[in-house]
Amino acid sequence: MRISNTDQLIRYSKVCLMAYISFFGLLVMYGNVTDYSANYEYVGHILSMDTTQINENIRYRAIESPMMHHRIYWFIITTEAIYTAYCLLGTYYLYRKVNESAAVFHEAKRFSIIGLLIAIFTYYVCLQTIGVEWFDMDTSQVWNAKDWARHIVDFMLPVLIFITLKNER
Question: Buried b vs exposed e over 31-43: b needs ≥16 C-beta within 10 Å?
Fold first, then answer.
């Protein structure tokens, strides 16, 4: 890695940020596979709404079927695997094209952008929006991933903006 100017530093910073997100995705996937039951329990409580404040007006939203809990959890694991794969590919292509022209480097961002969008879908749409707004997850004192998901989105969204910026020359 030879950084000779600020433009090169900006390019390498994009590669590094994508590598950080890829590493995070790998750790999350590893945890979900090796400790399936811990996060499955989390998902089950959120979907069942059994630890949220009792609000009879929204109890019809609860999903109490363990089979559906497994299916939804596997959907989450699958989206995590997909965004991680795209982010890894994005890191690879950015690194491979880091010394190319600005146009070529910009086109190499494609997989990174797709991976980040899928990650934001997973943590913002699935956890923050559906988990909090539909399943009332934020009222649970024990099974509440709202802040955890928000911190992830708070990191990934600015990275998405930074990656998409065409500020390399």
Answer: ebeeeeeebbebb
